[in-house]
Structure formats: structure tokens, C-alpha cells
Amino acid sequence: MKKLKYLKIALPILMLMGISVLLRVVLPYNQIFSEYGIKYACNDAYYHMRIVDNLVANFPHLTYYDPYFIVPNGTFLFGEHFFDWLLAGIVWLVGLGNPTAHTIDIVGIYFPVILAALVIIPTYFVGKTLFNKYAGLVASALVAILPGEFMGRSLLGATDHHVAETLFSTVMIMFFILAIKAISKKRQIIFSALCGIFLGIYLLTWTGGLLFILIMALYYVVQAIVDHIQNKASFQLTSLIIFPIALIMNYWGSLPKISIIIMVFVEILPVLLFGLSKLMRNFKGIFYPLTIIGFGLLIFLFVYFITPSFMDNFAVFISSGASSDTTSELQPFFYPSGTFTADVAWGNYTMSLFLAPISFLILMWMYIKRKEKSILFFLTWTLVIAVLTLIQRRYSYYLVVNVSVIMGYLIYVTYKGLGRLFKWIFKIRKVNNKRYIGLSVYILVVFFVVFFPNYNQDKETSRAPFTPSNAWQSALLWMKDNTPSPFNNEETYYTYYGVNPYGLNPLQEDIGKGYIKPSYAVTSWWDYGYWITRIAHRIPNTNPAQQTEPIKKVAELLLDEENNIEIINEFQTKYIIIDYSLVTGKFYAMAEWIDKNSTDYMDVFYVYDEGVMKQVELFSIAYYKTLAVRLFNFDGKAVSNEQPMVVTYVDKVTPDGYKYKQVTNYKMFKSYAEALSYSQSIKGSLIVGLNPFVSPIPLEALDEYKLVYSSTQQKLALEAGGVPEVKIFEYLGAS
Prior knowledge:
10% strand, 5-stranded mixed β-barrel, Rossmann fold, alpha+beta
């Protein structure tokens, strides 16, 4: 009977894991497996797979230096790489110690799918431990199908560490809750030790692992305040077991010193809180929490005074600047484009967006009534992750577990309440068909209201917009096969392993102060840097690691109007890759990074056409003078058949404060000289182009650049017709 009891839980869990896998594999399958080879569903996957390539060749050793990362500096691979090591280990085993490139890719693309399916297990136990097995099962069902950030980061080919973060942190939280609820000291010690192990793994997976240490610290403080007010001060044993284990596991890692200090402090925090409560046992009400806040502020000010860079450790939680403005995952949950919208929130949680807050309030009431420690921790954990999600939408991939558990609780208690209601309505003393009918209707309503809306959003999420297009994939494969290697022996350097770049290693003779110098580099926008490294085996000047100075210099170069040879030489540029999106939709991002106004290059004007106000995008002279446009739009050739237009406009403001430019007159000219003469005589006029591929001004040829590749895949460009999506130019002045 006991086996049957476990089987009743195991079978639904396995079924839900199967559904999770099917959704994440079937929906994006045709985008990942293409005629140009296997693709990955996000940019950072190419970074991780490049490391996995290197790890598999040297398993189990991870190189400390990557000459393929970026020019002119390369990079030292500090940071947390447990995710890469775990994946490489599985690849190495599957390939029996010598896996092929195809084996690496196959295991790599399925890895996040399997991790997402595994998240279902700890989610069930969190729900079961907090409430009951039914709430756990509903939570597991929701976490398997909820769309948005978690789904997007665990799709086929989304091989990034975020899904591993969710898995390891949820397992850690599961054991922490079990430790809190443990009746015996023995069980508390065992669960605390397991929590410490998974906290250690989590810290080895992500640089922002400090997050859950702070959540646990906040819980210890809040719980201590509650205990003191109730005159039930108790000593929390868990911290003395959890944090030493995690610290030992990260002793040889790259955990920042400040994180170590914070962990040590949180380890002894419950002891300090317990001692303070005993000292202040005669002080009731607000004095105890005020004392804690006072000590906390003093410690913060002291640390900040000693180490002002202390706050840098929290930058991962609150981003700013061009990186935040041009990276979607770093934008606010309800203000992704600077204006309020619920689209992102709906795309992550559908109906749970409205129901989960209700459940959270019910849980708060339940805690006030019962004072259960595990519920207090769950509320603290949920509230912190929810606030972070509001600041940066990316944290929604953590919040998915909390929302699922909350919804599991809400659906269960509603089910129980309706059961009693049906029993009262039909005046039944025993279960009969009428009650079954009522509850069956409830289950159907829950399915169509809570579960079913997620499927359409799952399809939207699974479109994997961050896979390289066929044009990019084919262009980079062409580059790999048709351009010289940046090193004498490409494969040796691509799988380079150096324990210490300043000491002895296999390629010591080629190392100067830890830097292996390549013969040239490839310049493109930072979005594409990891693709260039992993697909083409070439070295970019910048990449999604978002090192500020290289990105700014690339932006300066591509927006330059004077052909800035200094940056070309500094970058060791031999090839420049530009795509259609960079000279159209992404153009604003380049301007943003160097503090220029994108409206100086292109702007939306309003014009009356047959009595209807319409929007039209117009391009300024500055736009056509930029290097990116002269290369991509005109192949670096001279332009003499200019088609300028002069618009006269006035600045206007709507009643709600929206500023816009309204065209009052416009006139076409056959030459730039005529347009210039006319515009100089008309106040408030501007020479513009209607089409980015038809210049309003004459342009000289850029003879030092040669178009060497144009993709066969094209984009429709207004009057210009189809234009290649990706172009590669060779800089002939490179040595």
C-alpha cells in the first residue's frame, strides 16, 4: 500500500516532466534544427558552449585564459562555471571521452530542457511541505507550463545557467523549509547540511548568488523580531550548518571577498539576534526592531566607509545606463519601454498575474493566524523576488516557482471551500455524484482559466527570437571556412588550456604578460560577439559580456563620419560584419551607447495625408554619412544619384505632454545642391531621405573596404527592394 501511495505521486510528477520536455522541445524544434546546422536559442548559450568546447577537450580542467574571447585583451575566465563543468562532464561521458562536435551540440541543446523538467520535483516538495501534496501537484503542473522568462530560458537550445540557477536555488529552498519545519534536531541538521550543499552549488553557478544569502538573512531578522514580540526567542541552528558548508565548497572558487564576509556574518546572525533578544527581554514593542535597524545602519556605514566599492556587489540587482536601456531582460517588469504595459507580465503569468496576489494576501492572513515559520520564510522569499522582478524582468524566471506554489495553495483551498459549499447546498452527509459533478465543473473551470491560457503564450515564448538567423549562421560558417585563422594553429588555440597564464603552460612561448596576440579581429555590434567566437572561430572586438569601452568604441567607429582609422588599427580589424537590423531597428542602440540622440539620425514625423495624421520615418544627412550605413546600405561605393527631400516642420505637444514633429510642407529635389539652396532659405526646414537605402546626398567611395560576402537571405527594404541581411567587409588597410 505504501508503494502504491508513492506511485500515485510519482506518476503525475513524471507525466508533468514529460509535458515540460515536450513543450520545450516540440515548439522551438524547427528553429533550432536548421538547414545550416544546430542553433542555440539565446546569445549567452554561445558563450557557454564555447567554454564547453574547451572543457571537453581538456576535461575536467577549465582554462583560466581564453584568447578567443575578445580583442585586444582576451580574457581570464574568472567567475562561476559549475554549469559549464556539469554540462561538459555529461557531454564527455556521453561521448565516451571523445565526443564529436555534433554530440556536444546535441547534449548542449537538450541540457536546459532536462534541468527545467527537474525543477518540477523540488517545486512539488516545496508546495507539499508548506501546504499538502495537492497544492504541490498543482504547483508542479504550473511550473511545467508557465510561459515567459522561465520558459524562454529553458527551451531547447537555451543553454544558459539561468535554468540551473532556478533548479539549484529551489532545491536549496526546499531543504531550508524542511530544516525550518523539522521536528527533531537530527532531521534539522541533515536538511541544513543538504541546504548548504545546494547553496554551495548555487554560488558556483551564478555571480549573483548573494541574493539567496540575503533572503535568508532577512528571514532570520524578521523571525527574530516576531519571536521577541511573542516572548518566544529561539535559537536558529540552521545558519551554523548551512553557511560553513557553502563556504568550504567555494573556498577555491572566485567568490568575492565581500560575499564571504556577508556569509560569515549571516552565519552568526541568528546567534547575535538571539543574544540581543535575551538582553532586551524587558523591552517590548518597537524597541527591538529599532535596535536591529540601528545596528544594521551602523554596520553598513562602517563597511561603506572602509570599502566604498561595497555597493558594486549589488549592481547585478539594479542596472542602469545604456546597458539597461538597450537590454530587454534588464528593464522593469511593467515599464519595459519606459511606458506602462502589462504585456510582459501577462506573457509570463497569464491569469496567475491576477490570482497570485490574492493568494499572497490569504497566506499573509494565514500566517498572522498560525505564526508558522515556514510560511513566514515563504512570504519573505516571494516578496524579495517579486520586488526584484519589478525592477528587472529577468528575475521572473525565479518568481515562477513562487507563483506556482502560491497558485497551488489558492486552487487547493478554493477546491476545499467549494467542496464544503456543495455539501451544504445539496445537504449531503456523504460524498455522492452531485458533489463530484460540482467539483468536476470546478476543475474544468480551473483548467480553462488558469492553465489553458498559458499554451498560447508558450507558443509565443518558443519562437526563440535570439537564435541566429539563417543569414547570420551561413555568413559565419562562410567566415570560418574562407578567412584565415587569427592564429597559426586555430584548433590548438581554440582548445587552449592554461592553468596559469603567467607561469608554465603548453604555449608559454606565445604568451606575453598573459596575452596571446592574434593576427587580426572581427568588428561587429556587441550582440553578435559570442556568435562570431563559437560559430566562426574568430575573435570579436566586443560581445554580450558588455565591457563598456569596447562597445563604445565599436559604436564610435560604426557611427563615424570621418573614417576613423585609429579605432580600426587599435581593434586590429580585418573584417567588419553588419546586418540589416543594425542600420534600421538597432541603430538607436549605437547612438545610446555613446550618449548621442538617435533622433539626430532618424526620427518619426507626423504628416496629414488626405485628412488623416500619419507617421513617417525620415533619415537625416548624418545617418547617411555614418560608416555603418555607407558600408551596408551602399556597399562602400560612391553615390551620385541622390534623391533629397526638404521638410518644413513645427514642434508640437499633445494635451498629455507628448512631443512630436508635424510636417507643414515638403518638397522633392533632383540634387543635393538644389535641396541645400532651398533649405537655407526656409526657416525650420531639414534635408532628409525617405529611404535608408536611397541617399539624399552624394557619397564618396570607401576604397579601403571590400565587400567579400553578402548573404543570399534578404530583407525587404522599401523602394530598394530586397537587400542581403548580412554583409561582410574586409578592411584592406589591415596588416
